[in-house]
Amino acid sequence: MSTVREQVRESVSANPGIHFNELTRRLDIATGQAQYHLRKLVRAGDIDAEEVRGRTHYFDREYDPWERRAIALVRRETTRSIVGHLLEDGPLASVELVDRLDVARSTVSWHVESLIEAGVAEKSYGQRGQAVVALTRPAETRRLLQTVEPSLADRLVDRFSRLVDDSLGRNGHSNN
Known about the structure:
single chain; 176 residues; alpha+beta; three-stranded antiparallel β-sheet; 9 helices; 57% helix; 15% strand
């Protein structure tokens, strides 16, 4: 039987970019126990930790900083959808992303800004000053996208955020 530390290490390896809460849920271990073993693994250089938008994600050492940020972001359902549209159709206007995803403009903006801050996407201005979003490294992004599947918990949090945006009247068609 493997030790808890080995189970943590194996879970990180099998789930690149897994975040702390998901790890504790999957392994059904106490928060303190997870913190202890993750800290030991990071200090020993066995895994890397990357904080992205308020969540710490864990990775095998094989991923570089850009890859870690990209993977952490695409674990979120809305970001993953944005990236999927950009991979499928190339650069798109922000308003087009709002229409395609049928979510609040503020939600799309938050996810796009996250991608820009991580160096995964860039924004330029096209006709009539309209913001256009493009991926900076589409081939690498496509490859990384295939390594992760957002967890049910990630998808539920993302859907709850969209529900709150919608209930506050911040739909994609407002003039705010």
